[in-house]
Structure formats: structure tokens, C-alpha cells
């Protein structure tokens, strides 16, 4: 739900729907009748054409109405239909974008959970490897194991440490991806996140 409120790409889809809706309203307005009020004025002046002495009392005045009835509005109807089609397309794109965002968020959450579980497993693996090195060292001192056994346990410890580091990095990446997908990852101008 947070993603649906904070994702800028979804906000852009909403803006496109609003733009298409405004175009539909403008096109619908073009289908109606038009009624214009028209007026005219002719004013005479003195014979030497002195405009400072206009004679408004001898002028001719006219008023009227200019009506355009919607009898033949084929072009306007076509424009109106096109705007309706565009509106429906934008609504479908919004629904598609919403579905994609929900899918991305679910997948990012699953990836985050999987990375967290992998981190826990690698942490347990590291603990076991450390205990193995301790016990192998004690058994070597007691003369019950060879140096090769100690080296193998130390190699396993190093591998467990590397795996834990990789799991930690994967978890951090999954967390950032999840934050990005729900729209709360804010990146500062220097490229770092908050």
C-alpha cells in the first residue's frame, strides 16, 4: 500500500489519466451548441474627420445572436471518441502499472526474507566452523588429530566467514531493493541513500 502511495511512476500514470479526462471534457464541450452575442457600432464624425468630435447620438448600433446548432459535428464526435479511447488506455495502463508494482513489491519482500534467512544460516554455519576449529585445536594438542585436520577446519572457517559476508551484502542489497520498490528509498545528490 505504501508503494501505491509513494511510487512516482504510478503518480505519473494518475496524472496521465487526469490529463486524458480533461481532454474528454474539452471534447465533450465541443459537441454542444454554440451561442455568441455579437454587436456593432458605426459612429459618424464631423466632415473634416476630427476623431475628437465623434457623434455618438447619430451612430448606428446593432446587436444580435450567432447560433451554431450541433447538426453536423462529425469531426467533433470523432475527436470526442478518440479522447474517450485515450482515457480508457490510460486507465488500463494505470491498472497494469499497479499490478506490476504489487508484483515487484511482493518479489522484493520474498527476496528480502530469503536473504535474511540465508544470513541467519550463514551465521550459524560460522558459529559451527568456529567451534570446529576450537575442538580440532584441542584434539590436535591431545594428539588425536593431525595438522591436516586443523587446516581443513580453518579452511572451512574462512569459507564460512566469506559466505557470511556475501550473505550480509545480499541482505543489504535486498533491503535497498525492497525500499526502492515500495518508494521509500531516498537518494541524496551525492548518490548515497537516506
From TrEMBL:
Give the InterPro entries listed for this entry: MdtP/NodT-like, OMP_efflux
Query: Which molecular function GO terms apply here?
Result: efflux transmembrane transporter activity
* Pfam families in the record: OEP
What is the official name of this protein in its record? Outer membrane efflux protein
Amino acid at each position: 500500500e505504501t508503494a501505491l502511495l509513494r511510487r512516482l511512476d504510478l503518480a505519473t500514470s494518475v496524472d496521465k489519466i487526469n490529463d486524458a479526462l480533461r481532454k474528454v471534457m474539452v471534447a465533450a464541450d465541443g459537441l454542444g451548441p454554440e451561442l455568441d452575442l455579437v454587436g456593432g457600432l458605426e459612429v459618424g464624425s464631423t466632415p473634416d474627420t476630427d476623431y475628437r468630435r465623434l457623434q455618438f447620438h447619430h451612430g448606428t448600433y446593432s446587436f444580435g445572436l450567432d447560433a451554431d446548432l450541433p447538426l453536423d459535428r462529425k469531426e467533433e464526435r470523432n475527436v470526442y471518441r478518440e479522447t474517450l479511447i485515450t482515457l480508457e488506455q490510460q486507465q488500463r495502463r494505470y491498472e497494469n502499472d499497479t499490478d506490476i508494482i504489487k508484483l515487484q513489491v511482493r518479489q522484493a519482500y520474498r527476496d528480502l526474507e530469503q536473504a535474511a534467512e540465508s544470513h541467519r544460516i550463514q551465521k550459524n554455519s560460522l558459529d559451527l566452523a568456529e567451534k570446529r576449529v576450537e575442538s580440532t585445536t584441542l584434539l590436535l594438542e591431545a594428539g588425536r588429530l593431525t595438522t591436516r585436520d586443523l587446516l581443513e577446519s580453518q579452511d572451512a572457517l574462512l569459507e564460512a566467514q566469506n559466505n557470511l559476508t556475501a550473505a550480509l551484502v545480499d541482505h543489504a542489497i535486498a533491503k535497498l531493493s525492497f525500499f526502492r520498490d515500495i518508494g521509500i528509498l531516498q537518494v541524496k545528490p551525492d548518490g548515497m541513500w537516506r
